[in-house]
Amino acid sequence: MEVESFENEEVAKLLNDWFVSIKVDREERPDVDKVYMTYVSAMYGGGGWPLSVFLSPNLKPLMGGTYFPPDDQYGRPGFKTILRKVKDAWETKRDALEQTGNVVIEQLRDALSAKASSQDVPNDLAARYVDQCVEKLASSYDPKFGGFGSAPKFPRPVEDCIMLYKFRKHLEARQESEAQNIMKMVTRTLQCMARGGVHDHIGGGFHRYSVDECWHVPHFEKMLYDQGQIANVYLDTFVITGDEYYSSVARDILDYLRRDMIGEEGEIFSAEDADSAEYEGARKKEGSFYVWTSKEIEDTLGENTELFKNHYYVKSSGNCDLSGMSDPHNEFSGKNVLIERKPGSLIASKFGKSVDEYSQILGDCRQKLFDVRSKRPRPHLDDKVIVSWNGLAISAFARASQILKSGPPGTKYYFPITGCDPVEYLQVAEKAANFIKDKLYDASSKRLHHSYRNGPAKAPGFLDDYAFLINGLLDLFEYGGKIEWLLWAVQLQVIQASENILVEFLDVTFHAHCIIFCHNYKHSQDELFLDKEGGAYFNTPGEDPSVLLRVKEDYDGAEPSGNSMAAINMIRLSSIFDGAKSEGYKRNVEHLLAVFETRLRELGIALPLMCCAADMLSVPSRKQVVLVGDKGSAEFRNMVAAAFSSYDPNRTVIQIDPKNTEEMAFWESNNANIAQMALGSPTEKPAVAHVCQEFKCSPPVTSPGSLRELLNKTVAAAGSSV
């Protein structure tokens, strides 16, 4: 519509004569978008973008829709027809239109502010939520091309998350056949995604979605929220399988972000557009930056042309012919979207090459094409910095810094993968977190802004900003070991143990112990968004009267819902703190889940991450791995890597240096058991690991190998008790 209607002079005249036109960036104001998308979905049975909504002067919706062609066609009224009809209706039926808008908003307000009928969800239902969601996903699995559902195919990482979660549950129950069936679905999906055109083979990272069933021709936009979540799924799959293929894809994504999406101060940008010009001055087209003619490849690669064309299914006539949905309007005639259709080992053998030599040639070819592509007009870079999406990326970078250490030494990487030391990923995560703290967090009011571009935007932080950032900070704490990130996460969340509880914590900025009253944090997640009586979190603070709805979002879609992420955050925090603080977090989660009990029971496939949260809460005791020693020593660093060498979503890792008086003061105030472990560990050892679960701790171990063995044994032990 941007080109068809909003650059059309006739449309412009109608808009300017009859309407006040307001363009809303839904990424900058998701609260405004949510109100009117909810209205359109409720009134017309479906939503989507572009979204056009007609409002009264008091901002109540009168009518709306998604895509409208400029003129009447495809059995749909054209945008010009819609404009005329809305004008006529406003002049002849104004009162009725406004009344309808008022009634719909009130009905939506009641429906979307659900309250819990009880304070918790029975534990026996939690496992059922996971099972029902996994069964539903499995029934929609595409065994030929991977993924769940049909075209268009969107990467929806929360689906893989719950499948991997259920894989772990099967292992603990010693149901190995069932576990392997799940892994086949996940690995097939991830392989098809990585080999398809939805993956940018030349520059790294993933496009938004595939228009066809075979992950081939994408909508070429690249979104930050996809990159962080997809990288985490590949990292988890690498930990489970030990297959370097998955760690390489994770590196591919993270290296793309480091190269193209990070600013000078460490901020991570939001997106790259789908459209760009084929040459300077030309009209922008979808995918121009990413597609290739056969001749362009021949001119660039010389003697390696045939090898490359075989590997990536490049054809003189163009290759967007794998599905009737790939290019129905012949937009990519003569163009190729790179896709791997055959195993590289087979093509290597055909060309008489070893796999290593073949991989090196492909890497060199990708580098040459990257250099050529870099001279093309680039898609527009959306350099907004959005807190929630940065939180997702911070999580992936932090986790990669330890998980990737499990790879065998001497692994070779090929362009666009850099093969950097994983510790560099931790530095990226810390720098991004520091940018948010410096530029998007008001230290005096303790409040987040939502986004930044040449300064903080006026929009306040929303639930997703708080929840996703807290998740990233908890990963920074667990994987990086610095307690400052835990302290900030706690400050953003606030412990809801009681009305007047005191939280003693280390103020890392001034290196002094501070006593903070919880009720002073009026701009924490709990104070801004929590429905203390009804349970769960609203998506907005509710301070702006022009935003007509406060919604308790539960849908885990392209991004997790803020409520799902918040539930998991509080479960993680409950395993770090003891006593009333721990119980306060758990009670909040119980109340939150009770709000969505009907949705969890009847439509769990829409809430896969919340299903996981419900099961996590039902686990009698989350596993704690407490690592004690000199954090700067090689022995301690190796022990940390060992702690993350297995997949366990119900595990918390805590790193402590008993010689650090400030750290010890924090633990003595907030978890005496952990403080005692640190004080009681052998002082002559540079690294000691304690593994605790269900209020019992194993004898401490002092080598990475012993820790790996112990963590693997706990899976078998869990299975033997079933």
Summarize the structure.
The chain is of the alpha+beta class.
Which properties best describe this structure?
26 helices, 4-stranded mixed sheet, 722 residues, 3-stranded antiparallel sheet, globular
Question: Any overview of this molecule?
Answer:
Helix content is 48%, strand content 9%. It is built from 26 helices and 19 strands. A four-stranded mixed beta sheet has the order 17-16-18-19, with helices on both faces. A hairpin with a 7-residue loop joins strand 3 and strand 4. The termini are far apart.
Number of helices: 26
Residue-averaged pLDDT, rounded? 91
β-sheet strand percentage? 5-15%
Major beta-sheet overview: 4 strands, mixed
Query: Can you give the helix content as a percent range?
Result: 40-55%
Q: Which stretches are poorly predicted, pLDDT < 50 over at least 5 residues?
A: 496-520, 716-722
Shape field? globular
What class do helices, strands and sheet pairing give?
Answer: alpha+beta
Detail the topology: elements first, then pairings.
Layout: H1 9-18, H2 30-44, E1 52-55, E2 61-65, H3 79-92, H4 94-112, H5 123-139, H6 157-172, H7 176-195, E3 209-210, E4 218-219, E5 222-223, H8 224-241, H9 244-260, E6 271-272, E7 275-277, E8 284-286, H10 294-301, H11 305-311, H12 344-350, H13 355-373, E9 381-382, E10 385-386, H14 387-403, H15 423-439, E11 441-442, E12 447-448, E13 451-452, H16 463-480, H17 483-493, E14 502-507, E15 512-517, H18 525-529, H19 562-574, H20 579-595, H21 597-602, H22 608-618, E16 623-629, H23 634-643, E17 651-656, H24 661-670, H25 672-680, E18 687-693, E19 696-697, H26 704-720
Parallel strand pairs: 16-17
Antiparallel strand pairs: 1-2, 3-4, 5-6, 6-9, 7-8, 10-13, 11-12, 14-15, 16-18, 18-19
